[in-house]
Every structure is written in structure tokens, then in C-alpha cells.
Amino acid sequence: MKQIDIHLNLEEVRPLLNYVKPYFGRLSCETVVMSPEHEDAELAEVWKDGLIQKQSEDCAKLLAVFDDVFFESGVVSFQEENVDAFLRASAAVRLKIREIVFSNIPTSALEKGEVDIDTLSKEARLGFSTYIFFATLQEVLIKNFSMDA
Predict the structure, then answer these.
(1) What whole-number distance in Å separates Cα of residue 86 and Cα of residue 4?
(2) Quick check: 3 and 79 in contact, CB under 8 A?
(3) What angle do CA 33, 111, 66 make, to 5 degrees?
(4) Contact 53, 18 (CB under 8 A)
(5) Of 76, 115, 127, 142, which one is least surrounded by beta carbons within 10 A?
(6) What span, in angstroms and rounded, lies between the C-alpha atoms of 64 and 62?
(7) Which domain covers residue 118, as residue numbers?
(8) Rounded alpha-carbon distances, angstroms, from residue 4 to 43, 77, 82
């Protein structure tokens, strides 16, 4: 089983993880995407509940890598068997941040990092940094765990 270890600056990452915890909490009780319209309310509810359960499991796996060992060493380890969960959780939290904090900014500007940081509030700057952190994490995981790597 392949594993990668990433060395992160604790002083830089700690505020991002503190910022994102409430978003992960929201993802344990609400979907990141809208439920499809469906005549059968019971079926729609079962679909939504299943999605929330999987989302919650994925987020728990991702948060678990930022454990006591990480806060002592600054090293976070990612195992191949959990990469899909890490990618889904990172995407979910980024979508939730975008929905709540950056709904007025075009997705393309966020994805390209074309946001004038100076015009953002302190809270929004932290949100943007967190958004970029999880985007970068996704890129690193995809690069290191793709079939071509």
C-alpha cells in the first residue's frame, strides 16, 4: 500500500484547520449538493441520508490524518486506501466554503486564485486560504496516487 508523508508548517495550517472544523460539522448533517427533485419524498430522503452518511465518513477520515502526531511533527500521512475519501471530503468542504463565503465570486476566479485578497474581510481571507489549501491537497493526492504516478 502506497503512502505519502507531507511536511506542513503548523503555524500556517493550524488556523486553517480551526477555520474548517465548523464546515466539516455542517457536512455531517447537510448535503453539499441539492437533493434532486423527486415525486417520492421517502426515496429522496433515503438518498439524502445516504449521501450525508458517506460525506460524514469521508470528512472524518480526512480530519483523522490531522491528529496528535501531525500537531507534534507537522507531518501528515496519506494512505492510498483512503485517497478517494480524502478527495471527496476536500471537494465537499471546498464546495461548502464556496457556497457560504464566496457565492458572489465566480468559480473560475476561485479556482485560478484570481481573488483580490485585499478586498476580503479577515474571515474571508482565512476562508480563501483554506479553500486553496484543500485544492492544493487534492492536486498533491491526485498527482501522487494516480495510476500514472
Answers:
(1) 13
(2) yes
(3) 70
(4) no
(5) 142
(6) 5
(7) 3-145
(8) 40, 6, 12
Element of type H or E holding 60 = helix 41-65
Domain count, the chain: 1
Burial class (CB in 10 A: 0-12, 13-18, 19+), 133: buried
For the record, the C-alpha cell of 26 comes out as 455542517
d(CA 95, CA 100): 9
* All residues at 6 or more sequence positions from 68 whose CB lies less than 8 Å from its CB, including other chains: none
Please tell me the distance from the alpha carbon of residue 106 to that of residue 116, in angstroms, as a whole number.
13
- Cell output for 119: 478586498
